[in-house]
Design brief:
The chain is α/β, with parallel strands linked by helices. It contains eleven helices and twelve strands. The longest helix has 26 residues, at about 295-320. The chain is globular and about 70 Å long. The model is unreliable at about 155-165 and about 390-400 (pLDDT under 50).
């Protein structure tokens, strides 16, 4: 027995019911108690008891009563998620900057901040990001923060000769820095998995959805209904060392033709500098430069990557067999990205015998990564809303 007199099984059941309620409302919008019972498969008595707990904690609110014109009896009191009173915070670590944003549980932006990346070591960079996050939380007077999501650029141990860099922060280091600085629940995961949960909860992409991120690394993340598949942080979806047909690029892992050495921004940047298409010291965003003196070389390099992605991605999509695939990343001009989609569709049809649903989503302006990071916190919170039992939803700076 714990201090509440409940067994572990009772606590698990209680948390499961609360989770089902929050997930239903986040997915479907405000609903009454009877609708919640029908949607979750729980008894009306169980729902009523759990709703009372969530209302007392401030995790739910009651909206104005409504009466259906076709229904008799008492008006329905719709239950909804709080607005700005309850927030999640998202922190993203980019090689050049750290961005932090505060969002409602439905993804509306409330506050954000950014600063150039600080710290010359992974530990210092983690502390710098945690301090900026703390500053943002301190400015959220009158709101409660129920969790922090942190998306990091890397989802694997680097095998290349470059070695770790200040932004290559391990999950445990980042989690400890955030928890010790804020005293709040923290969910740290890779960029692509943050995008996957954002697509599900805040972009309405339901069912079996595969997200593929093409950038400094290439990763996959799958949301199947409300489950983030490959549940361990950074596990699954790491395809860096699958070989690209026809590639002769040597990888730091010792193989030839790996995706990491062939299709990533890092690999393309290395080739651009080695061939003189870009000067030493260039960054990934320079790969999209189209100055006359280097346009032909860079265009050829990007076109090569488009062809390589068109070869290697269709079998990976077939392996997962999603209802929808979302391709993310600015890895070419709009015309080059459309060509990549066309190649993927054509190759998929050749090897599978049917069409694939795939689309590209461009990043949104300003704070996109902070929002995706915050989605990690929403996903963690709504799946276990009562685990932080000591967290009273009354202030912006709950004690650990």
């Amino acid at each position: 027995m714990n201090r509440t007199g409940r067994t572990q099984l009772m606590e698990s059941q209680r948390n499961g019911t609360a989770s089902a309620i929050l997930r239903t409302i986040l997915r479907d919008g405000p609903v009454g108690r009877k609708q919640l019972a029908a949607a979750t498969g729980s008894s009306f008595t169980t729902i009523t008891r759990s709703v009372r707990d969530l209302l007392e904690r401030g995790a739910l609110v009651e909206r104005d009563a409504v009466r259906s014109p076709a229904a008799a009896g008492r008006p329905v009191l719709p239950l909804d998620l709080p607005g700005p009173e309850v927030l999640v915070v998202g922190t993203h670590l980019h090689p050049q900057r750290t961005t932090v944003g505060a969002f409602t549980l439905r993804g509306e932006r409330i506050h954000d901040a950014a600063r150039p990346a600080g710290g010359s070591s992974t530990e210092a960079r983690a502390r710098d990001a945690a301090l900026l996050t703390r500053e943002v939380i301190d400015e959220l007077e009158g709101s409660a923060v129920v969790g922090i999501g942190v998306a990091t650029p890397w989802a694997e141990d680097r095998l290349a000769s470059l070695g770790p860099r200040p932004w290559d922060i391990g999950y445990d280091v980042m989690t400890e820095a955030m928890r010790s600085t804020t005293g709040l629940p923290v969910w740290v995961d890779s960029n692509v998995r943050a995008l996957a949960v954002e697509h599900h909860w805040w972009a309405g992409m339901r069912g079996n959805v595969l997200t593929i991120l093409v950038g400094r690394s290439i990763g996959l993340a799958q949301m199947r209904e409300e489950e983030l598949v490959w549940s361990g942080r950074g596990t699954g979806g790491i395809v860096s060392h699958i070989q690209v047909p026809g590639s002769e690029q040597r990888c730091g892992c010792g193989q030839v033709g790996c995706i990491a050495a062939t299709c990533t921004d890092d690999a393309l940047l290395e080739r651009a500098i080695a061939t003189g298409a870009l000067p030493p010291g260039s960054r990934q965003q320079d790969l999209l430069e189209t100055a006359p003196e280097d346009a032909d070389q860079l265009t050829a390099l990007r076109a090569g990557r488009v062809r390589e992605l068109g070869l290697v991605l269709p079998p990976l999509i077939d392996l997962v067999d999603p209802d929808l695939t979302i391709l993310r990343g600015t890895f070419g001009t709009p015309e080059e990205i459309e060509e990549c989609l066309a190649l993927i569709r054509g190759r998929y049809r050749e090897i599978v015998g049917r069409d694939v649903r795939i689309e590209h989503r461009a990043p949104t302006a300003g704070g996109n990564w902070a929002r995706a990071s915050a989605a990690l916190a929403v996903h963690g919170y709504v799946n276990a809303p009562l685990l932080g039992e000591d967290l009273e939803v009354e202030s912006a700076t709950p004690s650990p």
